[in-house]
Each structure stands twice: as structure tokens, then as C-alpha cells.
């Protein structure tokens, strides 16, 4: 299997006349931690969603040499932490964490065990029975990290995961995310418009007007 997990070739995504992502060629290799910076509206989320296989390109191509075809990406191999709240309100924390595993065909016992282990590894096992509405923003994002890591993905995308957190809470959440990504040996691509977040990562790409700069 290739060390290149995802590669784009002059990929663009348009919405009507608007060019959100404009002819980007890039690749992400196993073990990398990449931060994508850029102002609001520069195309960071669109690029991340393309890389995660959640959006289809308007032109150009994307392949996942080290993972498989688009159909094989989710929910185990490639996982995404979204910008806003993403927990399902009617489910408890542990049910939220177990859900992607159940959708992937795990039996209830093993899904529950993996969910409990993911919560414990993040030190939030005490939240297991809570409802999402009872959580603080920082706690909810930790649960979102646990949900992603329960499936031991190869490739983790995080779209401004700290965008709605104050700085100390954001820093703690990123510590948790970085440790968790290391623990499962995953590769991380994260977007942010916060310079202090970007400084944590050595590989920096920046976006402006749908174009990518700083790619080595
Ligand atoms: N689903 C969509 N429909 C129409 N326009 C969109 C959609 N998603 C993104 N855009 C537009 O594409 C551009 C890039 O958006 P986005 O990728 O969300 O940027 P960023 O994440 O850097 O803020 C923006 O002008 C945004 O309004
Ligand atoms: Mg965005």
C-alpha cells in the first residue's frame, strides 16, 4: 500500500459562478500533520471535504492510493471532526461515539466496548451517560474526538475544531487530539484561522481565494 493517503490533481469545486477551490494539486502522506490556514471563505472547508471524500470535485481528480476507492473511505478509514456541534441530540455520549461503528457493521457489544475505551483514553469516561445538551463546548469537542478515534482511522480531518472554544479550552482540546492521533497512528489534516493553533504544527499550507500556497 502506498504511503500517500490522498492525492488531488488540479481539483476544483464551484458553486454556481463561485470558485471555492481552484485547481489544487496536493498530497497527504502517512504520518504527516498538516495545518491549513487562511481567511474565512478562502476554501479551507471545501478542500477538507474534498480530501475526505465528502464532496465531489467539479473538475480534476482525487484518489486515495493508501486507503482505497471512495466507497471504502468511511466510516472507519477516514474520519472528520466538523466545525460546529455534531453530536446527535437524542443519543447519549457513549451512543454517539458507538454509532459510526454500528453503521460500519460492528455488533453492539464490541461497538460499546470500543466507545468506552475511546472515552477512557481521553479521560472523559464520566461523560458516557450524559446527553449532548448537558456538555460544555470543550467537552462536546472531546466527545467528537473520541467518536473519530473509536474507529482507529488512518486519516483524520478536523475542520476548525477549536473555532468555538476559548483559547485555554482550545489548547487542551488540541493536546487531546494530537495525543489521540498519535495513539492510533493516524495522519492529521486540520484547518484553522487561528495563528496560535497553526503554530503547533510544522507543516503549514495556506489558502487564499481557493488556491493553495506553501505546499512542498
Ligand atoms: N455549499 C455551498 N454552496 C454555495 N457556496 C458555498 C458552499 N460551501 C462553500 N461555499 C462558498 O465557497 C467559498 C469557500 O467556502 P469555505 O470552503 O467554507 O471556506 P472557509 O472554510 O475557508 O471559510 C465561500 O465563498 C463560501 O461561501
Ligand atoms: Mg470553513
- Give me the Rg, rounded: 17 Å
**Biggest sheet, strands in spatial order?**
5-6-7-3-8-9
CATH class: Alpha Beta
Q: CA-to-CA gap between the ends? A: 22 Å
Structure description:
GO terms for molecular function: ATP binding; ATP hydrolysis activity; transmembrane transporter activity. It comes from Candidatus Aeolococcus gillhamiae. It is built from six helices and nine strands; from the N terminus they run βββαββαααβαβαββ. The chain has 216 residues and is of the alpha/beta class. The strands form two sheets. The chain has a six-stranded mixed sheet with strand order 5-6-7-3-8-9, with helices on both faces. The protein is 32% helix and 27% strand. The protein has one domain: P-loop containing nucleotide triphosphate hydrolases (Rossmann fold, 3-Layer(aba) Sandwich). The model has no long low-confidence stretch (mean pLDDT 92). The radius of gyration is 17 Å and the shape is globular. The site of adenosine-5'-diphosphate has 11 residues, from strand 2 and helix 1. The site of adenosine-5'-diphosphate (ADP) has 11 residues, from strand 2 and helix 1.
Amino acid at each position: 500500500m502506498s504511503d500517500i493517503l490522498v492525492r488531488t490533481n488540479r481539483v476544483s469545486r464551484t458553486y454556481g459562478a463561485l470558485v471555492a477551490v481552484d485547481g489544487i494539486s496536493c498530497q497527504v502522506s502517512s504520518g504527516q500533520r498538516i495545518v491549513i490556514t487562511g481567511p474565512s471563505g478562502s476554501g479551507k472547508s471545501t478542500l477538507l471535504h474534498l480530501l475526505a471524500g465528502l464532496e465531489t470535485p467539479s473538475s480534476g481528480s482525487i484518489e486515495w492510493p493508501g486507503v482505497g476507492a471512495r466507497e471504502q473511505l468511511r466510516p472507519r478509514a477516514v474520519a472528520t471532526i466538523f466545525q460546529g456541534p455534531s453530536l446527535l441530540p437524542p443519543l447519549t455520549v457513549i451512543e454517539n461515539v458507538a454509532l459510526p461503528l454500528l453503521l460500519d457493521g460492528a455488533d453492539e457489544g464490541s461497538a460499546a466496548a470500543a466507545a468506552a475505551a475511546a472515552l477512557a483514553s481521553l479521560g472523559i469516561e464520566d461523560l458516557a451517560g450524559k446527553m449532548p445538551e448537558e456538555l460544555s463546548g470543550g467537552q462536546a469537542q472531546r466527545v467528537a474526538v473520541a467518536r473519530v478515534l473509536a474507529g482507529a482511522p488512518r486519516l483524520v480531518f478536523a475542520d476548525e475544531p477549536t473555532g468555538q472554544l476559548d483559547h485555554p479550552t482550545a489548547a487542551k482540546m488540541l493536546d487531546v487530539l494530537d495525543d489521540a492521533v498519535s495513539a492510533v497512528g493516524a495522519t492529521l489534516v486540520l484547518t484553522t484561522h487561528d495563528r496560535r493553533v497553526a503554530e503547533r504544527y510544522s507543516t503549514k499550507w495556506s489558502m487564499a481565494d481557493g488556491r493553495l500556497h506553501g505546499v512542498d
